[in-house]
């Protein structure tokens, strides 16, 4: 099924002429998850996103589907249990996207250390128990100081006690969004990017749709819908402020997260690594290898600037360079070593003290509860206690942690689902790992409201098993399936490395690329691999600008930066020919792309330091 600039025109017409059951404002991961479940359940569903899909926050995460082991430093067990359970679900419904990537956690003898060698083993055993990987090839293990340094010789040796290794997953966040969006469109949903909600429509005192603007043409039009849900992430309060009467307190406290990318020759690590900063600030940071690069982050600071174009500031760079050079003293990384970067806003609930990366306040588990957890987990590992004994202790822990507080409107930890008096539903907060669970919670409310108010009955899908576009494979056979897809690509005429790149990117949808190869002519200045990828993105993934392709459908800007300068003009030329752009349009799109690249490259900061 095509999903392109041409189908967008039909979608916009349908949005104007169809009364929807549900209109979704926001095309990040939360909105995409709701769109998939609503469309698959047969609801008349529409989604509008004022930027590209995933452009706001959902392409700017740490690019991990991680289990939150940090929460176990205060035995906030429930959030870890929720997260690792949901992580397994995401792996099943999008099996071609999250990839297993065991995480190394070095332990230092420092007053501010999150874990010591004893507590990290207890935490990892509990983590594996919750994640149901005990006894598997991904079960945790500890390393001595010598073993850690053998694995990562560039790590600071002073004060190093050893380390732990536990299961985590790399993620392609923007691809997870687009695969959900494509599946929703395949199931009948009306998905449109670069459409902005500018006002609400009312029937009496109830919201009955939105006035929207097509940001490509400037056209204003109305979309009527029985229910409207706000899934706009950091923009949640800005959307609520479009209402005639907004009687709800501010929900979102955005924080800014920055990541920096260097070539792996500058900082080589064999696997994702999660470390205390060493600054006695209670924070941790990630160092992650990816596609011949290494990235590290993240900052976590309150933010009040431009939501659409947050920027990396010198203070962000200084902080991250300080902590990474402290832990890797031979790296001596400087601003000029940074090849690319990204910055995103996290839509934290204002009443929740925890962040996505460092979680919770400093609330304490009571001494009695702490001792009981250590005792029962130790006995469980020695096969002297049953699972039920562990669960009983965990369920009765005493803690003042904000993340453990009961939020009656939450559908996952750190999220909020509310309906206001005028009918607007808002789904906010949460983590990328929780997106399906958040959407499921919202769908139950939407199902109930449609039945009670409009006598419309819908049966919800089992979203724990409903796979996204490109993920139509047996989750336990991902590696085998991808290998088969690579073999088919080689048979079709691709180099093995190119076939692997495309199969990893598109999953089972890569077959569509192979099917056009017989009569396909590569675009001028582009390889067959890249030409097939760009062709597919134009026809099946609704790219509207070169940045959509180079930043969010692929990873060229972040992790294949070496090839970007040679690729950007051929991509622009191919898109201009396909979409009949004028010379002025080509110039405008090139200027926009150059601005995005310059921001990622930190050109302004580098020029200031020159």
UniProtKB/TrEMBL annotation:
FAD dependent oxidoreductase domain segment(s): 21-350
InterPro entries linked: DAO_C, DAO_C_sf, FAD-dep_OxRdtase, FAD/NAD-bd_sf, G3P_DH_FAD-dep
Highest taxon of source: Bacteria
GO biological process, one term: glycerol metabolic process
Reactions the enzyme catalyzes: sn-glycerol 3-phosphate + O2 = dihydroxyacetone phosphate + H2O2
Pfam family, one: DAO_C
Record GO terms (molecular function): glycerol-3-phosphate dehydrogenase (quinone) activity; glycerol-3-phosphate oxidase activity
Enzyme Commission (EC) number: 1.1.3.21
Required cofactor names: FAD
Region Disordered: start-end pairs: 397-417
Keyword Isomerase carried by entry: no
Keywords in alphabetical order: FAD, Flavoprotein, Glycerol metabolism, Membrane, Oxidoreductase, Transmembrane, Transmembrane helix
Broadest EC class assigned to this enzyme: oxidoreductase
Residues in Alpha-glycerophosphate oxidase C-terminal domain copies: 464-586
Family, per entry: Belongs to the FAD-dependent glycerol-3-phosphate dehydrogenase family.
Protein name (database record): Alpha-glycerophosphate oxidase
